[in-house]
Amino acid sequence: MRECLLWNCISLVCFDCRIFSCFSLTGVLDDCLCDIESIDDFNTFKIFPKIQKLQERDYFRYYKVNLKRPCPFWADDGHCSIKDCHVEPCPESKIPVGIKAGSSNKYSKAANNSKELEDCEQANKLGAVNSTLSNQSKEAFIDWARYDDSQDHFCELDDERSPDAQYVDLLLNPERYTGYKGPSAWRVWNSIYEENCFKPRSVYRPLNPLAPSRGESFYTWLEGLCLEKRVFYKLISGLHASINLHLCANYLLEETWGKPRWGPNVKEFTRRFDPIETKGEGPRRLKNLYFLYLIELRALSKVAPYFERSVVDLYTGNGHEDAESKALLLEIFRDTKSFHMHFDEKSMFAGDKKGAKSLKEEFRLHFKNISRIMDCVGCDKCRLWGKLQTQGLGTALKILFSEKEIQNLPENSPSKGFQLTRQEIVALVNAFGSCFFLI
């Protein structure tokens, strides 16, 4: 029997046709002139192999994040204070970058019976952040901090000077299934869609990612929105699809003798994305992921002048590796510029200046609020990747709306008009790399 694959994560879903329904995405995406097949070819043969190499380099594999920030909107009741719910501090020879997933001495309300308790235990075990870092890395990070700067943001950024902000090795903490589900996860997505996406309260749509759409009325309404508000919804939906795809593609299939076996879960993928199972809803979600990819691809092509300057280094202290990292990044930028079907961000906020400015600010504040909601995620590893992907998309939006500032950058001195922190750069590259991946 042929092994089930998710090729390029979503572009071709090739199941054994004797057992599963086969489907693939084709055609032109809405709100742009790009077709899915062109994105697949471009990503597979030009972008993905280089992005993968870049993500493995020290500059891009370490992400500084504060996983202890309290939820600003409701009581943080998503954690279970039971077995494996904590991220234990590293030994003396290691750096303690993990955090405790919960501080209460009681079980959460979600663990009142044995089945829920078992689910909660598994979720906390799988969702724990691997906090292993070397002393050598710790010394390097102190030096790295001198190279960061910032300006206005689309995201609520972590205070990197906070004692709770710690570096995490992304290669040791891949985005995958954690078992995080239930009321806490529902509450997060409900707040994101209902309170931050642009829509009248009279429009109802199930927010459960597994629930089918209630007819075409929702999409009829969506198409009636202005371009900017449609783009906002599609980006959030694409982000949601990316998270669910990582869950399906890197699923805990079996755990025997303490040795977990990870791999694609076809049943879970079908439940979330198959057009028959979702009554046509799944392919829409996947197309929104393609749209997210286009937005971040466009941002990479637009930000190239910032990095092409000699004053900008991808600094880790290893001169040879830093030079290779920058050369590889610039090569990726050249590739992104060669793509001939970019999303045209100039079509956004192009109305009267006063109205466009107001809408742009509303757009920014809505997205910034979503970044704050990520501090309400009750699973450490989910929170880590939720914050990273949100910051990556926020950085992409910041780039797209700063074209004039980027064009006027001085060659040999830092810019006061447009700057990126290390964390924004790391988040942008890793978020873009998370859109499409090969298994």
Automatic annotation (TrEMBL):
The keyword Transit peptide does not apply. It is found in: Endoplasmic reticulum membrane. Its cofactor is FAD. SUPFAM superfamilies: ERO1-like. It is a peripheral membrane protein. GO terms for biological process: protein folding in endoplasmic reticulum. This is Endoplasmic reticulum oxidoreductase 1 beta.
